[in-house]
Every structure is written in C-alpha cells, then in structure tokens.
Specification:
Elements (H helix, E strand, L loop, with lengths): L4 E3 L8 H16 L7 E4 L1 H10 L6 H16 L2 E2 L5 E2 L1 E7 L9 E5 L5 H9 L2 H20 L3 H5 L6 H16 L7 H15 L3 H10 L7 E7 L10 E8 L6 E9 L5 H4 L12 H18 L3 E8 L2 E9 L4 H13 L5 H6 L3 H8 L2 E2 L9 E2 L1 E4 L2 E7 L2 H6 L4 E5 L7 H6 L2 E4 L7 H9 L2 E4 L5 E3 L2 E4 L2 E4 L3 E5 L4 E4 L4 E2 L2 H6 L9 H16 L3 E5 L3 H9 L5 E5 L9 H8 L4 H20 L4 E5 L12 H13 L6 H12 L11 H6 L3 H18 L5 E6 L5 H16 L8 E6 L2 H5 L1 H7 L2 E4 L1 H9 L6 H12 L15 H15 L4 E4 L7 H9 L4 E4 L4 H11 L2
The chain binds adenosine-5'-diphosphate and magnesium ion (2 copies).
Length: 853
C-alpha cells in the first residue's frame, strides 16, 4: 500500500518531489539536529490523489492518526486535551517555492474548552484567546471560504469578545458551529491545504513561473511554538547573505511578541537581527552558518523565539536578484564551497538578460498612464512619433507609438528607443522584433486610443513630440521623463568599462570565461550591417549566422526593387554595387570569422506600397482627372502579385527560381566583396545560404547558378553553399538535401509556423491565450522551441543530414537561438552553433556553457 505520511526524522532535502520543498527542508534540519518543532509531512502524492478523486486517499487519515500519536508522545501533550492541549500548524509546501500562494493554518486544536486550558497552562489569558481568534479566522477563510472582510468588519476588541464575534461570522457564513473536535479541524485543514494548490492565484503564479500544474502540494503538520508570548518571544525571517546584492553578512527582520506572518505583513516596524537577545542571536548565527555549509548556497529561514528558546520553522535555498545570483556564485567559488562548473548552474541566461536592460529609477516615477504587455524588457524615454518615417528622421530619442507594427516599420523600430503598441501580445510583430533587437517594447496597451497624430488614454491626450517613458519589464507607460540607469553589464561587454573593482562585473566576467571554456555550441549573431556585426563581435559572437539581405533593400533602395518588380532588369545592375559595399563592410567587421549570407527571402510585394494605399491614391488621382502615372503601374503589379497566403507563396528559393538574375546578382555581390577584402589583405569567410528549400532539386538549381557565378569572380576565396531548413519537408528529406548543401541552418520561426500550421503574425490575439490557459503549451512555441514536435524534425534533419555528409555544419538562426531553454535543446541535439541577435549573444554563450556542464 502506498505510504502517504513521513515523519520529519525520516525525510531529507533531496525528497522535494515527494515531501515538497518545505517538508524536505524541515526534515533536513531535523536530521541536522537543529531545533525544529516535531511533525510530519503528508506527501504530494496524497494531494494529487485527493485532487483527482475529490476524496481523501484510502488509509491516509489512519496514517495521519498514527503519526499524530507519535507526536503526542514526543511532546508529552495530547491533541484536543482540555487542560494542556497540543496545538498544530498545517502548512502547504510544493516542490517549488510559491511564496504566499497557498494556505497555512495555525493553532489547530483550540476549541471552547482547550482555550481555557491553554490560558491556564501559559498563565496568559490574552495569548490563549488571541490564538483562538486567529484560528477561527484562518480556518474560516481557508477551509470554508468565509470572506476575510467579514472578519475584519468586526473591528478591534478584547480577544475573548473577538472570538465570540468571529464565531458568529463563521456560523452566519457556513450555517454550522465552529468545529470543536480537534481531529475534524485537522482533517478539514489538510483537505483545504490540498485544495489551495488549485487556488486561482496559485495557478496563475505557476503559469508565470513555468511550474507544472500537476505536481500538487505536500502538507506539513507540526507542533506549534509561540512567538506571541511576551517580550522574550517573537518571530522573524533571515538571509545568510544579502539577497539584493549578494553581499556577505546576515540580513533579517524580527518582531517581538508576534506570530506567523506579522513580519511579512509589515503591520509593525521590524527590528534587525542585531537587536535579538544575545544568546538567541549567537545560536541563530551558528545555525545559519551550518545551513549555508549544508546547502552550499544562500539560505533564507523563518524562525520563532518562544520564551527565549529558538525554533526553526523553515529554510530553503533563497531567491535572489539576478545581480546577487552572479555575485554569490562567484563568492562561493572563492570560498571553496562550489566549483566553477557548479557556479555556472547557479546563474541563468534569463538573469543575465535582465541585467543587460537599462532600468527606470522607479522611486522618481509618477503614477503610470496605463499598463500593457511587458514584451521586451528595458526602460526607454523619448518623444512620441506615430510613424516609421518620423522615427527615422528624428534627431533626438523617440518612442514609436503604433496600433501595431509590420515589417515596413522596421527602420522606425531600429531608430526608436522603444516601441509602444495598443494591440497584440508577446508574440506580435512588435514584440518579437523588439526582443530580437534588445529594444524596449510594451505592446497591447489596449487603453491607448491611437488616432493619426494623437493618442488618448484615460482622459489625457498626448501628441507627437510629447515625451513618454515605457518600461518593458513591467509594461507600465508613464507621461514625461522617468530617469533611466544604463546597464553596467552592457557597458562592460561594449568595452566601455572594465570589471576591475566591481563585484558584479567581475563575477559576470569570470562566469562568462568559464562558460566559453566549457561550451561545445558556438554562438554566432544575426547581423545585417557592419556596426551590428562589430557589436556582436564585442559581445563574443564568433561569426554571423544570418545576414538578412532584404534589409539591404530598404529606404531609398526600395525604388530599385520596385523597378525590378516592374520588369526592369537593369535595376539588378544598380543594386549590385550597393550590396557589394554592404557585404564588404560586414566581412571586414567579421574578418576571419564565418558570415552566412541568406539570399533574399520575403515576398517581393512587401517592398511595394500596400494595396489599399495604392488603390486610394490611384482613385484620388482619377477622381481629380489626373493620370495616376507610376502609381497605376505599381497598382497593377501589386494586384498581379497579390497572394492569399504570402508566407506560403512566392518567397525564398522560389523567388530565385522565378526571377532571373536576382540570386545571381546577390551571389556576385558576395563574391566580389570577398575578393575585394582579400585584395585588401583581409580574411573573409562568406557562406551563401538559400532560404525556404523543400526539395533538393530547388537547391541544386540555385547551386548550379551560384557556382558558375562564383567561378567567374577572380580572387574570391572558397565560398560554401548551404540551405536553411525551415520547411518540414526539408527536415524529412535532409539526407538528400545534404548532398547539395555544405551546411544547414534551422530557421525555427518558419519551421515552427509550418509544423504547427500557426501563422506567427496572427496567432497571438486569436487563440494563444486560450491555448496557454488550457495548457496545450506552457510557453509559446515561437519563444521556446517545441522540443517534442518541431524539435523532433530538428533531430531527424541533423541525423539524416550528417549521415549523408559527415562534415555537415549545422546551426540555427531563428529567434530560438537566443532563448535559454532552446539553447539547451540545440546543444543536446548536437548542433554546431546557434545564431541570435547581437544583444542576446552573451546570454546564448552563458547558456551554451551551462548546457555543457
Ligand atoms: P508560507 O509558505 O506562505 O511562507 P508557512 O507555512 O511558512 O507559509 O507559514 C507561515 C508562517 O506561519 C510561518 O512563517 C511561521 O511564522 C508561522 N508558522 C508556521 N508553522 C508554525 C508553527 N509550528 N509554530 C509557529 N508558527 C508557525
Ligand atoms: Mg514560510
Ligand atoms: Mg524563414
């Protein structure tokens, strides 16, 4: 028969799955001989069973009863005794800490007669009745959902009177008397703690923290100790190091004559640990030192002092800020407590990312205008602009404010300090692009009413040029300028400052060096320009994994693309020198390192004005009796090229096969730029990458053309030709494709889109919220690679590709390349490198090192 209950003395800190974090750590402290009130833990398995069937698992209550009897023997008191009652706390505690999200009930075992016994025993009537009052309140709220306000409405009073009044509230709400049988109290409390796993706020918290919803909570039942027995009693919390900065030295808060959560609730001003009575303080410090040694990490603890005796009520490896995480990891290495490999496991790419964003000095911020979705962290201040052209033309810092963004807004997004939209969520265009660029973005701020050149929000209207501040870490939008602090870490990576003398920078430096040393996965950058590539290189990229050549067709060069689309092939000759110059700059910035140039990918009509706009212009001209001229010709072209599903239409390799000379021009530009670099004494290592291939024949055709162009350029270095794997068919036929490709690069954005059949531009508002709610996925597959589905295609392609060509280089260049969880997946799938935006390069480096240790 399954066993559901473990005494504290039976468990240990490694049993968190079964006993929950709190239970496992209480057991560990008990084993260490620390002063923990005796007790036992009901397993998470019992909770899962209960939540599944709606009933207490068979045999559970009998098992609880047996452990309770042991506890009574040990304490020399009995539960429910009228003269000297044993009182219990019933505490939640899942595998992962969820502070304050679930329930705990104190003082179980008090009733109308044992309260008298407790008063007599303790010689403290006030204390006894106040404890009973607390029980009725906590029990009522937790077990019977009596609204907390109903108790509060009673107001202050003598404890005895309050007990009377609270019982009335309880009866009014539940239609029954407050349970007097202590066993009934206990069993009902255990059930209520089980159910608190499903409380709305707990579900929400787990979703946010990516904690699985099916783990269940354990329940800890333990003897009560009392911090509310006068001036030599009290309760407190403490940390073995400063959880904000990581600085050495204990930190904590203490409250005299208090119980439970009074400290956290902030009702009274707390004391520092220095003010504890000396013997208690000495003992507490020595316990904290032992805990650090045992857990080899920062610990936080909850303790209570009852008449001068110290009791430990909880410990765990403590939460900390990202900065403290790095500092403490490095400290512990210095102290000889952990190895550098372990230190790498103590920090994460997410934490590094948070340290790389600038931040607002919140203390000096006004109340926010509104709050949207925190889509891309950081703090940005600037004048409002409503379109991309204005952003690009602006001389000072600007915030691009749009209903939503589309690829046309890219120049504006690049120019702006931050992006604010009123529509769309975390995977909207604005959000994805901004995150990629490391640019602050708040999206889906639905209260904003954007109308041409003004934006109204909650009765205020702002105009172009008005200054706003947006916080991409919290989603808050402020009017006016909130002071910003730049990230020191970024200044360090940029080479503006050294790590010398700064504990945080020194810690980051040390862990980054170790990560690079361990990593098997290389980190390249997605960069389209020389300055981008140079920055990526400063951030530690060892190549460009994706240069999107279409980004070289924006701005004034659009005209050339228009000419091309209208059938003027001389446009290609005009584009050639422009592309060549771009590549030369890029190769120079990445001299000696590979630069993967992707041939043009998006549907060409993306370079033309939108259909509606053109139609309106032509109609206006005609209404005025004017010749629409070039607009008319363009309109015909746009109509001709209009597609129902452009993402599945004429793009990628298909363009190369349909539009003669387009790819050849790009290949020539690459080869000539490389030859020029060689002539200038450089060491360019370009590669040519063909997008959207689904069949080897497509690649063979483009390859033949490219090879003949390459052969015709004198002085060019060898240039490898490879393909993106972003169509499921390409992954499945990777064995054939590898024969014609010297490298693969997974385009996981398109691969995800096509594998799931989700349009990445539309899913967000439509149904992702619902999908996340239903748990169909815990996180958007566009953010973190779907390891089971899309990931399986990656594994298949790697295996089949390498079988056909053992020296095949395999990388990834989608958004996922900079996502910590995905980096780990790519390491395990055996890829050679990931490529991500320059800003995320350090994050990927850290994660690549972590994945390899
Ligand atoms: P949370 O997980 O939300 O922190 P806890 O189970 O730790 O909830 O309980 C909250 C507080 O209740 C503890 O910090 C402690 O002060 C008090 N408490 C819990 N058990 C006992 C006990 N056996 N004796 C005295 N106080 C207790
Ligand atoms: Mg606690
Ligand atoms: Mg693609």
């Amino acid at each position: 028969m399954t066993r559901y209950v473990y005494d504290f003395i039976e468990g240990n800190k490694d049993l968190k799955d079964l006993l929950g974090g709190k239970g496992a750590n209480l057991a560990e402290m008990t084993r260490m001989g620390l002063p923990v009130p005796p007790g036992f833990t009901v397993t998470t398995e019992a909770c899962r069973d209960y939540l599944h069937t709606g009933k207490m698992p068979e045999g559970l209550l009998a098992e609880v009863q047996r452990h309770l009897e042991l506890l009574e023997t040990r304490m020399g008191k009995s539960f429910g005794d009228a003269k000297d009652p044993l009182l219990l706390s019933v505490r939640s505690g899942g595998k992962f800490s969820m502070p304050g999200m679930m329930e705990t009930i104190l003082d179980i075992g008090l009733n109308d007669s044992s309260v008298e016994g407790l008063a007599e025993q303790s010689g403290d009537e006030h204390f006894a009745w106040d404890s009973y009052r607390r029980l009725i309140q906590m029990f009522g709220r937790t077990v019977f959902d009596v609204p907390g306000e109903d108790f509060e409405a009673v107001g202050p009073g003598q404890p005895k009177d309050l007990v009377y009044a609270y019982k009335k509230v309880f009866e009014a709400h539940t239609g029954r008397d407050f349970p007097q049988a202590s066993h009934e109290q206990l069993f009902l409390a255990i059930g209520a703690v089980f159910r608190s796993w499903k409380a709305e706020r707990a579900v929400l918290y787990r979703r946010q923290e990516r904690i699985p919803q099916d783990l269940g909570t354990a329940v800890n039942v333990m003897a009560m100790v009392f911090g509310n027995r006068g001036q030599d009693s009290g309760t407190g919390v403490a940390f073995t190091r400063d959880p904000a900065t990581g600085r050495r030295g204990v930190y904590g808060d203490y409250l005299r004559d208090a119980q439970g959560e009074d400290v956290v609730a902030g009702i009274r001003n707390t004391l520092s640990l220095d003010e504890l009575d000396r013997p208690v303080r000495t003992k507490l410090l020595s316990i904290m030192e032992r805990l650090e040694q045992r857990y080899r990490d920062l610990c936080d603890i909850e303790f209570t002092v009852e008449n001068g005796t110290l009791w430990m009520l909880q410990t765990r490896v403590g939460k900390r800020t990202p900065a403290a995480a790095f500092v403490i990891a490095a400290q512990l290495v210095d102290e000889g407590t952990i190895t550098l490999d372990e230190a790498l496991q103590r920090v994460s790419g997410e934490q590094l990312a948070q340290l790389m964003f600038p931040s607002f000095d919140i203390a000096s911020a006004p109340p926010p205008l509104t709050t949207g979705v925190a889509a891309s962290p950081g703090a940005a201040v600037g004048a409002i602009v409503f379109d991309s052209a204005a952003a690009a033309a602006a001389t000072g810092p600007v915030i691009l404010v749009r209903r939503e963004t589309n690829p046309d807004d890219l120049p504006g997004m690049i120019a702006a300090r931050g992006i604010l939209t009123s529509r769309g969520g975390k995977t909207s265009h604005a959000a994805v692009v901004a995150r990629g660029m490391g640019k602050t973005c708040v999206c889906g701020a639905e209260e904003l009413v954007i109308d041409g050149d003004s934006v109204a929000v909650n009765g205020r209207t702002l105009h172009a040029g008005d200054v706003i501040s947006i916080d991409g870490t919290t989603g808050k939008v402020y009017a006016g300028e909130v002071p910003v602090r730049p990230s020191e870490i970024v200044r360090y990576f940029e080479g503006e400052i050294t790590a010398h003398g700064d504990p945080l920078l020194a810690a980051v430096e040390r862990l980054m060096i170790h990560a690079d040393h361990r990593a098997r996965l290389g980190v390249h950058a997605n960069a389209d320009t020389g300055p981008d590539a140079a920055r990526a290189r400063r951030f530690g990229a060892t190549g460009v994994g994706l240069c999107r050549t279409e980004h070289m067709f924006l701005g004034e060069r659009r005209q050339l693309v228009e000419r091309l689309i209208l059938g003027d092939h001389t446009a290609l000759a005009d584009l050639l020198p422009l592309q060549r110059a771009d590549f030369e700059e890029l190769f120079a910035a990445m001299d000696g390192l590979p630069v993967t140039v992707r041939l043009i990918d998006p549907p060409l009509h993306e370079f033309l004005p939108p259909l509606e706009e053109l139609t309106a212009r032509v109609a206006r001209a005609e209404a005025l009796g004017q010749d629409p001229g070039r607009d008319g010709v363009l309109l015909t072209a746009v109509r001709r090229m209009h597609e129902q599903n452009p993402m599945l239409g004429l793009r990628g390799v298909r363009l190369g096969l349909v539009i003669p000379g387009l790819f050849a021009m790009q290949v020539r530009a690459v080869a000539e730029a490389a030859a020029a670099r060689v002539a200038a004494g450089g060491d360019p290592k370009p590669e040519i990458m063909v997008p959207l291939v689904g069949a080897v024949q497509e690649l063979e055709t483009v390859r033949a053309e490219a090879e003949s162009v390459l052969a015709s350029v004198p002085g060019a270095p060898p240039i490898r030709i490879g393909t993106m794997i972003e169509v499921p068919r390409a992954a499945l036929t990777a064995g054939e494709i590898a024969v014609a490709a010297e490298f693969f690069s997974f385009g996981t954005n398109d691969l995800t889109q096509m594998t799931w059949g989700f349009s990445r531009d539309d899913v967000e508002g439509a149904f992702f919220g619902r999908y996340l709610g239903l748990g169909i996925f815990a996180v958007s597959p566009f953010e973190t690679i779907d390891a089971d589905g899309v990931g399986e295609l990656v594994r298949i392609a790697v295996t089949r590709g390498r079988a056909a060509r053992p020296d095949l280089t395999v990388g990834v260049c989608g958004e996922h390349g900079g996502d910590p969880a995905s980096v780990r997946f790519f390491h395990e799938a055996g890829l050679d490198y990931v490529s991500c935006s320059p800003f995320r390069v350090p994050i990927a480096r850290l994660e690549a090192g972590r994945a390899a240790t």
